[in-house]
Amino acid sequence: xxxxxxxxxxxxxxxxxxxxxxxxxxxxxxxxxxxxxxxxxxxxxxxxxxxxxxxxxxxxxxxxxxxxxxxxxxxxxxxxxxxxxxxxxxxxxxxxxxxxxxxxxxxxxxxxxxxxxxxxxxxxxxxxxxxxxxxxxxxxxxxxxxxxxxxxxxxxxxxxxxxxxxxxxxxxxxxxxxxxxxxxxxxxxxxxxxxxxxxxxxxxxxxxxxxxxxxxxxxxxxxxxxxxxxxxxxxxxxxxxxxxxxxxxxxxxxxxxxxxx
Length: 261
Ligand SMILES: C[S@@+](CC[C@H](N)C(=O)[O-])C[C@H]1O[C@@H](n2cnc3c(N)ncnc32)[C@H](O)[C@@H]1O
Description:
It is a single chain. By secondary structure, the chain is α/β, with parallel strands linked by helices. It has a single domain, classed as Vaccinia Virus protein VP39 (Rossmann fold, 3-Layer(aba) Sandwich), CATH 3.40.50. It has 11 helices and 7 strands. The chain has a 7-stranded mixed β-sheet with strand order 3-2-1-4-5-7-6. β1 (37-41), α3 and β2 form a beta-alpha-beta unit. The longest helix is centred in the C-terminal third of the chain and has 15 residues, at 220-234. S-adenosylmethionine is lined by residues 7, 19, 23, 42-44, 47-48, 65-67, 70, 87-89, 103-105, 108-109, 209.
């Protein structure tokens, strides 16, 4: 079997300001005062790690990611920090972290019922697990991906792509799983409204994330065809505003779980 294609840090960073805002909002709800050990799981190019390190300059902050391309960018951005190649699916820590930060990564992982308690058990007493996940699979942007994949000449080839990201749990699921793991839980959801240049910018936004499992499986000709059909499909849901921009609605789920001392 061929290796899974790597993430593309440059494409991801095309919308860096918009993508970093949820990390800022998430970190604002972490009430730790003097953490000693922090880790940013799925740290990507280091944009979220930079915020954690700036908020807690006296702590040792590390980043972990499964993408060599992302890690290379993160190391260049924050040369004083340690970044390790690893898979959150099999990650745990017996010493215990004060802060486990995971922005925009856990939605790619299966079995949240097993994963969230495992992460909670890797916290020190009083430590925080801070998570943000897109909750956008029912948005037109994502419904259209699945429809185009299922209807095109590539339907068979792309059947497996859909399974790369399954639906996340309900508010009640995360609250229950984390309470059972000994945590106090704060959950909320925010819909960001991003004014993007045009319809094409929506495709550019998702090329490094939601569209990636589909496009990775196609030839460059197939990719162009897929994106053209995708744009046609999403057009009615994202009409141009009076200034020509389109409004991308983006619901995101936030969780801050504190391990009882
Ligand atoms: C959408 S980016 C988020 C980057 C950054 N945390 C941020 O806030 O912008 C998702 C990152 O998760 C990483 N990732 C995906 N699955 C992973 C896994 N199983 N283990 C570790 N990292 C993973 C990807 O390589 C990518 O860098």
